[in-house]
Amino acid sequence: MKTRIRHYRKLRRFTQSDLADRIGTTAATVSRLETADMKVSMGWLQRFADVFNVQISDLIDEPGAPGRVPCLGEISRTGALLAVADDGSVVTLEAPAKDPIALRIGESIGPYCAGDVVIADRMAPEHAARALGRDCLVEVGGQASGFGRFVSSDDGRYFLVPPEPGAQARSLPTPDWIAPVVMLIRYF
Q1: Predicted confidence (pLDDT) per residue in 156-166, tens digit
Q2: Tell me: the pLDDT tens digits for 80-136?
Q3: Domain boundaries in the chain?
Q4: Which residues 6+ apart lie within 8 Å of 148 measured at CB?
């Protein structure tokens, strides 16, 4: 069975050794699983899904599936095509998230342009440490409370720093959920 393990590894910018360390195996085994030189069991798929924070079904290759665009390679700063992808690589337009939500940026703020769509991955408050230092949507008291950089203080309080330069950080009670941004879609 052909999988999308390599795709998600590259999307997360892991080397085969990085990924091997995270799932408790060797880089050689990761290579064999990526190239289908070794049978990929449901156990292996679950380990990869946990590391990539995706569903097992996201790891199973479905040629011609909607939302997949062939990837020709990488472009350098000079505009040169650096690496021609001859391995059937694709760019996935699916959100790399277990519980995705989307937000449309209404007006340009900080690094975001009006019309951008950000995809965020909702997580429970006990996983807040994984969201620290990332742009997030936060819900408190059953209502979406704001968007910005999610940070904490030495005394364990949470703050949301808006993306607009110079904006005042807001103190937050314990959130109902936190949704760090995992994908940005910008239309031209």
Answers
A1: 788 889 888 88
A2: 766 555 555 556 666 778 888 888 888 888 888 888 888 889 999 888 888 999 999
A3: 5-92, 100-185
A4: 135, 136, 160, 161, 162, 163, 167, 169, 170
Q: What superfamily does domain 100-185 belong to in CATH?
A: Umud Fragment, subunit A (2.10.109.10)
Give me 106's structure tokens: 């209404």
CA angle 102, 98, 75 (to 5 degrees): 70
Q: Could you give the CA distance from residue 99 to residue 114 in angstroms, rounded to a whole number?
A: 24
Is CATH 1.10.260.40 the classification given to domain 5-92? yes
d(CA 9, CA 105): 28
> Distance (Å, rounded) from C-alpha 186 to C-alpha 188?
7
To 10 degrees, what angle do helices 42-52 and 16-23 make?
Answer: 110
Amino acid found at 10: K
Residue 126: phi and psi, rounded to 5, are -70, -10
Smallest CA-to-CA distance from 9 within 73, 1, 17, 120 is with: 17
Count of beta carbons in the 10 Å neighbourhood of residue 112: 21
Q: Which amino acid is at 136?
A: C
pLDDT in tens, 97-110: 888 888 888 888 88
CB atoms within 10 A of CB 36: 13
pLDDT higher than threshold 90 for residue 28: yes
